[in-house]
Amino acid sequence: MKPVRQNGFTLIELMIVVAIIGILASIAYPAYKEYVVRGHRAAAQAQMMEIANRQQQLFLANREFTAMSATACKASLPAEVSGRYGCTVTVGAGTVPSYTITFTPVAGGPQAGDGELTLNSDGVKAPADKWQ
Fold this sequence. Notes:
Blueprint: H1 11-62, H2 70-75, H3 79-82, E1 85-91, E2 99-105, E3 117-120, E4 125-126
Antiparallel strand pairs: 1-2, 2-3, 3-4
């Protein structure tokens, strides 16, 4: 009588495959999270540039910049940005008109570790390493 040959995988082979998938997932997931954070940051930066353009248009028409409270600024943002960042626009008090746009990540949100983003009327973007 011939011995019957079993088809399929052994438990050791399955455990090796599971371990390999676990290692790949542990590498890929943090990279994916960082990619998502950078994408949301880029959307916020685009909104900052749009607000800066509106401030420049207001300055050309009225010879002054306009401040925006946190509530008014956040209301003007699209939902994808306003859910992750709060914003303010402050106007300088000196003789030379100026403004500063500040986006602050929502506490406890996905962007919480991202830090504050600022853009001023001179075009200075801070922190420089977060701007693309």
